Amino acid sequence: METAVDFELPNTELKMTRISSYKGSPIILAFFPGAFTSVCTKELCTFRDSMAKFNKFNAKVFGISVDHPFSLAAFKAQNGLNFELLSDFNKEVSAKYGGLHDNFANIKGLKVAKRAVFIIDKNFNIAYKWVSENPGVEPNYKEIEEELSKLN
């Protein structure tokens, strides 16, 4: 099994969050291209509405995009998101995990995170990995829940 890459990113309150500090519980990393876009809003609201299921497994959820923490704070507030959003403003973590889209939305030089979901088990190994080349495709939420249930 592949060990997860540790990282530290600012959250919407500008506090640095080190992912390895949550070792011992399952961690869901949901990378998304951009705040305030239709598919990303739908995806993160689905995660919001699924938190009771994730809490049942003591899982910690993080949404990650290359947006600035200030934009993510507004996005989180507007959608009532009940989990942390992290800003990968320098695009390093997204590149190490799911990768980046170049020229996103046909805008030359616009790089954003690929839509991707990773589940990290309590031993800090990657137990589940899903990366989409198509930013319009949402993850299989039922599959995420099933994979999470296997960890307990």
Please give a quick description of this structure:
This protein has helices at 38-49, 51-56, 69-79, 92-96, 141-150; strands at 8-10, 16-18, 27-31, 60-65, 84-87, 100-101, 112-113, 116-120, 126-131. By secondary structure, it is of the alpha/beta class. It has one domain: 3-Layer(aba) Sandwich (Glutaredoxin), CATH 3.40.30.
Structural class: alpha/beta
Q: List the secondary-structure elements in sequence, H or E.
A: EEEHHEHEHEEEEH
Largest sheet: 5 strands, mixed
Spans of 5+ residues with little confidence (pLDDT < 50)? none
CATH superfamily: Glutaredoxin
Count of separate DSSP helical elements: 5
Tell me the total number of β-strands: 9
Radius of gyration: 14 Å
Regarding CATH, which class?
Alpha Beta
CATH architecture: 3-Layer(aba) Sandwich
Strand order, sheet with most strands: 5-4-3-8-9
The fold-level CATH name is Glutaredoxin
Helix content class: 25-40%
Mean pLDDT across all residues, rounded? 95
What number of domains? Answer: 1
Which band does the percent of strand residues land in?
15-25%
- Head-to-tail CA distance between termini: 17 Å
- Label the overall shape: globular
Describe this structure in words.
With about 150 residues, the chain is of the alpha/beta class. The protein has one domain: 3-Layer(aba) Sandwich (Glutaredoxin). About 30% of the residues lie in helices and about 25% in strands. It has 5 helices and 9 strands, in the order E-E-E-H-H-E-H-E-H-E-E-E-E-H. The strands form 3 sheets. The chain has a 5-stranded mixed sheet with strand order 5-4-3-8-9. A two-stranded antiparallel ribbon has the order 1-2. A two-stranded antiparallel ribbon has the order 6-7. Strand 1 (about 10) and strand 2 (about 15-20) form a beta hairpin. The protein starts with 7 loop residues before the first strand and ends with a helix.
